[in-house]
Amino acid sequence: MWSRRPGARFWINAWWPVVVAIAVICFESTEMMGADNTSGPLRAICRFLLGHDPGAQWEVIHHYIRKTGHFVGYGLMGLAWLRAWWMSLPRSMFLQDALLAMAGTALVASADEYHQSFLPNRTSSAWDVLLDCCGALTLQLIVYIFMRLSRPKRLMRAA
Questions:
Q1: Which of 3, 85, 97, 107 has an alpha carbon 20 to 30 Å from 15's alpha carbon atom?
Q2: Assigned domain for 59 exists
Q3: Residue 55 lies in a domain
């Protein structure tokens, strides 16, 4: 018996989060989002939240805010890739989907850093790619643990 092939709506539903995540990275990988341009607005937000200016420690705080953005942003991208592969591959298994999601995340992170090497106010760093992949791996592990505890049979499903 032949099963019906998924239509365009299925593929759009499965992959739109990946497209949106890549679009966000493309926007953030511009000169406008360089540290020299984000420092002022982020400092104002920090001043508003804390009620005072962080002073001399601002550069360190700003650095950690930006690196946390890498970790969380690419962690969410990794989850978008994981979801897309989980929905798209027949008889998929979590490990297989997670490895493909890590590959997609690493590819986008590497392309992002390569692109930034051409921008005058941005720097390119292999350490950022590693940080991005660590974010993706961490969030995928959290999802795996959650699914293992709450829905163990879903992890072993055959699509």
A1: 3
A2: no
A3: no
Average pLDDT along the chain, 159 residues, taken 10 residues at a time: 72 95 95 90 93 91 94 98 93 90 98 95 94 98 92 61
Query: Measured between alpha carbons, how far is 46 from 110 in angstroms, rounded to an integer?
Result: 30
pTM of the model: 0.87
Q: Does residue 151 fall inside a structural domain?
A: yes
| pLDDT for the residue 141 | 96
In a domain? residue 132: yes
Q: Residue 78: CB partners within 8 Å, gap ≥ 6?
A: 101, 102, 104, 105, 135, 136, 137, 139, 140
Distance CA 96, CA 77 (A): 17
Per the structure, the complete domain to which residue 105 belongs is given by 17-31+65-155
Tokens encoding 51: 């009620």
Give the gyration radius of the chain's Cα atoms: 19
